[in-house]
Amino acid sequence: MPPKSYYHEGGETFLQSLFTHFSYFAFDKAKEQADRERDVSKNQCSPVWTTLLSCVSQLAIVEKLYMNLLFLTPKGFLRKESSVRLSYETILTELVEIEKRRGTTSNTSHASNAPSNVTVESEKTEKGCSEGVLLHLSSHLILFIQARLLMLSFYEKLILWSSNKYVNYDDALQYIDEIIKKNSSSFHHPILAPIKTTFTCESEINSHLLGSLKAMQELQFLPALLHLHDAQSKLLSWQTIIQNKESKKYNFLKSPSLPALYQWLWRAKASFVSKFSLYFYEVLSGQASASETKNLLTKLTCDYVSKIQSFQRKIDAQSVCIVLKASPHCNMRSPGYNFPSDEHAQINLDHYLTIFSYPVKPLSVWPCILMQLSNMTTEELYDKVISHYDVKVGITLFFCQIEPNIFLVVTFENKKPEKENFVKEFLLDIAVQLSCNKVFAALKPN
């Protein structure tokens, strides 16, 4: 006796199990089960069922490539006809052809007056998987693939933006938030609930990560903290889905079984937390003892504070500080949360704030620092370190730009230090790391 197809009984449950495999990256298993069911169903089930299974099988392959970021490989590595985007578009075309049957099926149903046909179709709906359900599901899968194509474009743009001087967080945030808004109520069919959940996690994690960077650039402590917290919560929710389906516990940043995109999101969050710890060190260090703070910082992906402290001692600098050039309507007076006040509502364009300084803020040479910063342009500072020796004051200043409005400054008493090249290399390295361009560039597979 030949195997019985799920089409006749338990079809919807079977389809949902396939998409559940998608949610925890078991794409090979989903493809294997879809192919097996398609072969069993040949010549005994609706052609819509077998065609849909074929689409799901193809989708499993393409989703695996997507999650491993292979759509970002350099041109020429993959042949054009086998690209990830083209594969999605091919599946989309097949689903559109299935979806067109809805109108045909509807017209045929209205034309038929045989009550026996209605009875047979009703029984199939109760026990198996009706053609109407399959056609409706196809229309939702179309929306999912359209959303996935938008995410492909989003990551491609992130790579492009990372090659610029600085990533424009406003543009990136607007792009991902539009995707979230457009698809908030799309492909909500219960059978697609597993991939709807993971798509929402992925897109919202990206939004929160970018939101945290924008808030840090504007020195907004609470918004940056909340965005990082929400990104962490979404990542943990996604992790729970995977752990619930797998018996073994993963090392989530090192396991080779986890796809590249998922691992990149965790690494990006860790990098941004490290940046947050430096920008708001003054606030965070006030919440715990010096030893507790130091212990917590050593657990981060990059302990910028220790790096800068070690650098300062090694070259015997007077101070190392990070300075923010505030916007015209900024009402901040220090890093961290500032209570709104009309008295401080307007600050002129040339107002600067010290984000971080070690060992102390160079108050004696602060006017000289501000004068030099006011006279410098972004083009002058981009990707280079500028030094200035002030004969009157007797100090040497080194400037390096981290972001359009944030600068790294090192001061020395007297003339330039002997290890000038070492100073420049260190400042450029720290600036590149804090700009986070390399984090986004790391999306591209090696």
From TrEMBL:
<dbReference type="InterPro" id="IPR038060">
    <property type="entry name" value="C12orf66-like_central_sf"/>
</dbReference>
<dbReference type="Pfam" id="PF09404">
    <property type="entry name" value="C12orf66_like"/>
</dbReference>
<feature type="region of interest" description="Disordered">
    <location>
        <begin position="103"/>
        <end position="122"/>
    </location>
</feature>
<dbReference type="GO" id="GO:1904262">
    <property type="term" value="P:negative regulation of TORC1 signaling"/>
</dbReference>
<protein>
    <submittedName>
        <fullName>Uncharacterized protein</fullName>
    </submittedName>
</protein>
<feature type="compositionally biased region" description="Polar residues">
    <location>
        <begin position="104"/>
        <end position="120"/>
    </location>
</feature>
<dbReference type="GO" id="GO:0034198">
    <property type="term" value="P:cellular response to amino acid starvation"/>
</dbReference>
<dbReference type="InterPro" id="IPR018544">
    <property type="entry name" value="KICS_2"/>
</dbReference>
<dbReference type="GO" id="GO:0042149">
    <property type="term" value="P:cellular response to glucose starvation"/>
</dbReference>
<dbReference type="GO" id="GO:0061462">
    <property type="term" value="P:protein localization to lysosome"/>
</dbReference>
